């Protein structure tokens, strides 16, 4: 409004002064009328009752414009205007005044019009109430007032509109049903302007009004404002109070709305998690019931399960986040939300824990199946190795190697026993886990799937048991065969040892059994010892024969040809025949020696006073014959059936034995001579 303003000055009746500055340019009466209406709407009714003094500054305008403005005042504000002061230019309108006298038109106009020069305006208005343009001292900055008025108008407009919007929002939030409340908030939730900005503007405006200072003038000169009613401090304060009240309610509505929105978002996310876990997630687990029939199959199922767990882990992460949000709302939530939040939390936790338990159960089941198949594979390999060992024919070199092989066989069989025991334990554990699947099957009939798994596990264990039983039977046969082979080797070794013992007895007989005794008594003792010696040799021979007979039986049982019985038996018989021939020769010599010594000793012990005992000379002839025969046998070797010969002892040993016999024969010969010539016997004889 560059040409119309309220300066804040007052006339002598305390009425407000309205200044209308006119210019040379064309003045729009319509704009002037609108401006007047606006300015007259600012004061209160009390101020309007005191009337207005209007100063029409026509110094820069034409008379017809001034007249038109004055007449327009009649139509616009006749009741409020009490005096119109038209400020004329110096000596410019004098001739035209006669054409229209305002004082004559007072009754028709409704107010008094005074045509006055600017320097005489103080006659009607105090100088302190006039601006400098009219020679007064009132400080007034129209542009600053205009800017502040625009701020006030903008604040009033925005605050009024904002109050209506906030009231609509707040009142909508107080409706009865939840649906109506949410629908009202949805339609009018966001105000058109920022309440914080409007409040800040109002506080700044009120602060300036209360300080009675405009800060827009260049020099910062203090300006005396109009009355409080004119400056609308109460209106600003009332608007601010209403705004604060409605904005506080609006913030609470927003908080409730935010809480409700957050609760709805959490509820939506909870239902997304629940729907997925109970839908696609559970369906994935429903289709995974097998345990595989091998290690590779179980590992493939584990890999598939890991993919399922990976998908679940994403939803479990959402569950953790939602649980934290719900916990935070529970700590800071209202009583009315606690029940709903706890119900959501409980529902989410139940579904997630149930699904996690199913995943863990499935993982444990697959791990148990993998361990079962791993043990079954190891046991199968052990059985294959044991069977391969049993299928190879045993051809040991000696009994020690057979014992080593038998020990290895027993160790393998023990390892198989332990493996089968471990397989049974793993299988039973797996069966126990499978039997628990029905507890979380969601009503699905898992009898068929479980039966397939149970049949497979039991089939594997039964197959391994049968294979192990077959191997045990084969081990029993192999053990018996190997023990028979050990016995065969032992019999052959003992038979060979018997031959060695018999050979040693023969050698001892030939080399050490050479004495014939010095007298009959000693010879009889030697003969008795020889018979015992022969008994030992007979026992050794019989023992060897029994062992060789046992080897024949074992060979027949083992269906094999003895490698040593054919050699050992002839050796045993040959040595035994040699021993028998040698023993008979030894017996014959000892018996001859007994006869010789007995006769000789009888002859030599006869008394000379009994010559009748020696009447028969044939006894001497007999003893001489026996002695010669014995001497002859000492020089003759033992001849074996194979034609080989062997002497008793060494030649010196035989010569010593023969010399002893010859000496005794000489004694007998001397005795014979004495008996024939008793009368010639002398001490020298």
TrEMBL record:
<dbReference type="Pfam" id="PF24915">
    <property type="entry name" value="Spectrin_SESTD1"/>
</dbReference>
<dbReference type="GO" id="GO:0043325">
    <property type="term" value="F:phosphatidylinositol-3,4-bisphosphate binding"/>
</dbReference>
<dbReference type="GO" id="GO:0005546">
    <property type="term" value="F:phosphatidylinositol-4,5-bisphosphate binding"/>
</dbReference>
<dbReference type="InterPro" id="IPR001251">
    <property type="entry name" value="CRAL-TRIO_dom"/>
</dbReference>
<dbReference type="InterPro" id="IPR056804">
    <property type="entry name" value="Spectrin_SESTD1"/>
</dbReference>
<dbReference type="Pfam" id="PF13716">
    <property type="entry name" value="CRAL_TRIO_2"/>
</dbReference>
<dbReference type="GO" id="GO:0080025">
    <property type="term" value="F:phosphatidylinositol-3,5-bisphosphate binding"/>
</dbReference>
<keyword id="KW-0677">Repeat</keyword>
<protein>
    <submittedName>
        <fullName>SESD1 protein</fullName>
    </submittedName>
</protein>
<dbReference type="GO" id="GO:0010314">
    <property type="term" value="F:phosphatidylinositol-5-phosphate binding"/>
</dbReference>
<feature type="domain" description="CRAL-TRIO">
    <location>
        <begin position="1"/>
        <end position="142"/>
    </location>
</feature>
<dbReference type="GO" id="GO:0032266">
    <property type="term" value="F:phosphatidylinositol-3-phosphate binding"/>
</dbReference>
<comment type="similarity">
    <text>Belongs to the SOLO family.</text>
</comment>
<dbReference type="GO" id="GO:0070273">
    <property type="term" value="F:phosphatidylinositol-4-phosphate binding"/>
</dbReference>
